[in-house]
Design goal:
The protein is mainly alpha-helical. It contains 25 helices and 4 strands. The protein is 52% helix and 2% strand.
Length: 515
């Protein structure tokens, strides 16, 4: 295991020894030397059924990096899950090294206003991509994506672009594997959420005709906790909005020590008695009304069922069996919303193992899983994430999955239909990746070929590549389709072109679109 001292020492030696042309290239050399590379040999599946550990890495991670499958098998699935559930114990210095340049992500919400908006958007998006590709804390990153959708905030509304970086850090990432109650409480007073769902305008001043703004209160119940069929009424929404009144955000405050923080204005708050979901909140609670409200909605039985169903849809099936949803909900209730405990039930369930290859990868997962499978290096002579033709962020946008850009509070969907109209862009991305046409993204093709093995006939080699990318051997029909697709280009180029054509067809195939 590398240490911080050896990492720094190697960074210094590497930069001087090879006369690197840029900081980005030195980072590539260092990270590859310490493990972000391709092993000498890759063991691939020997069955037409998806390998169980490959399935685990395809759902609980963003797909295996070369060598991850062997490590998971050696550890055992239970040990792998437990390791991933304790992300702070996983050394992630190599990914941290790649991410250190994103300065805007380390500033408070107020200080982020010093950055230009394109910089904030660019760095937040690039950081999310980079973490998903290179982090060893893969389950953590998967849950970061899940909660980002669950508590969706569109960068394009108001000042959200200045406030989302701190929300990503202090709400989503801080609580991604923590407690659901703490996650919702942090989100409720997050400046980004107060701006996005108009909580900052929720005021009920005495002697005026002010009425509470119900936007956040409604989404808190409908999308964040109970669910649309969770049993709340319009009266509950109105009473919840009264609880939330007075919490606001205003960067224009004068003489404030922490202008970027949300704060409570007592003269905007309706401090009378309230009744939410049948429970009374006594008068005089002031800012504590928010805490009482969050406690009530998080402990409601509908919340356990709603969150359990969403997790099962994300990890198991678009139509999960009621039995697994009930077991996950029961664990949610038993542990008071402990996210780690709930995930143990999901990932160790028979239903999870029985659903191999059934879920369509959303564009972000498809892109990241392809980059990971091909051990792609995105730090070669500069950044591949800058906006422009053929770059990663533009491909994501073309696929309909521009990060932090979903306009409505429900977040990007899990069901398949919305993603079917952009499949051609997946094909284009796959071909560009293996053909070296993604700007500065570089694939170590020679190392991959050696690790996968190139001895044997065409079908034998194709089968090994297929197993590496999909976790199983191809069927006879799939082998025939691969041969037909590549035969069409035979003789039109050199061996490199033929190889790129074969891998591009594989990555764009229906099998690689699912996990």
């Amino acid at each position: 295991m590398h240490t911080r001292r050896t990492l720094i020492k190697t960074a210094a030696l590497g930069t001087g020894a090879v006369a690197l042309s840029s900081c980005e290239r030195s980072i590539s050399v260092i990270t590859q030397a310490f493990g972000q590379s391709v092993p000498e040999h890759l063991a691939v599946a020997q069955s037409t059924q998806i390998d169980p550990e490959f399935h685990l890495l395809s759902r609980a991670a963003f797909g295996p990096w070369p060598g991850d499958l062997e490590r998971a098998k050696e550890m055992g699935r239970q040990a792998w899950i437990e390791e991933q559930l304790e992300p702070t114990l996983i050394n992630d210095e190599l990914c941290d090294l790649r991410a250190r340049r994103f300065e805007s992500l380390f500033f408070s919400a107020g200080d982020a206003y010093e950055f230009k908006k394109p910089v904030l958007r660019d760095e937040l998006t690039r950081h999310s991509l980079l973490r998903a590709i290179y982090s060893r804390r893969q389950l953590f990153e998967v849950m970061v994506e899940f909660w980002t959708d669950h508590l969706n905030i569109d960068l394009e509304k108001g000042d959200c672009i200045c406030l989302k970086p701190s929300d990503d850090r202090d709400v989503i990432r801080k609580h991604a594997l923590g407690n659901f109650h703490d996650l919702i409480r942090a989100s409720a007073s997050s400046p980004a959420m107060l701006v996005y769902l108009d909580g900052k305008s929720n005021k009920v001043r005495k002697g005026t005709q002010d009425k509470p703004n119900e936007n956040y209160a409604r989404e808190l119940m409908e999308l964040h906790t109970l669910g649309v069929h969770g049993g709340y009424t319009q009266t509950d929404v109105r009473e919840a909005a009264r609880c939330l009144s007075g919490w606001t955000f205003d960067m224009k405050r004068k003489f404030a020590l922490h202008r970027g923080d949300s704060f409570f204005k007592a003269d905007w708050h309706d401090d009378g008695a309230k009744t939410v979901l049948g429970q009374t909140i006594a008068a005089g609670g002031r800012e504590k009304d928010l805490d009482r409200l969050v406690e009530i909605v998080c402990r409601h039985s509908s919340t356990a069922k709603f969150v359990a169903h969403k997790l099962c849809v994300r990890f198991i099936s678009q139509s999960p069996a009621q039995s697994i949803v009930d077991r996950v909900a029961a664990e949610f209730t038993r542990t008071g919303g402990d996210i780690k405990s709930v995930l143990r039930v999901v990932l160790n369930s028979d239903e999870f193992m029985a659903s191999r290859g059934e879920l369509l990868k959303r564009p972000f997962r498809f892109m990241v899983s392809a980059l990971r499978a091909m051990a792609a290096d995105t730090h070669v002579h500069g950044s591949p994430f800058r906006h422009g033709t053929g770059q990663l962020t533009e491909y994501l946008a073309r696929m309909g999955h521009g990060l932090f850009q979903y306009p409505t509070p429900d977040g990007y969907p899990d069901h398949e239909a919305p993603w079917m109209g952009t499949l051609m862009w997946r094909w284009n991305f796959a071909m560009a990746l293996v053909d070296g046409k993604l700007g500065d993204v570089q694939v170590p093709m020679t190392d991959l070929e050696k690790a996968v093995g190139q001895k044997g006939g065409r079908d034998e080699v194709a089968s090994r590549w297929w197993a590496h990318l999909t976790g199983r051997l191809p069927t006879a029909e799939e082998l025939s389709a691969l041969a037909e697709a590549t035969d069409q280009h035979a003789g039109k180029g050199d061996a490199r072109t033929a190889r790129a054509e074969l891998l591009g067809v594989m990555l764009a195939s229906p099998a690689c679109q699912r996990c």
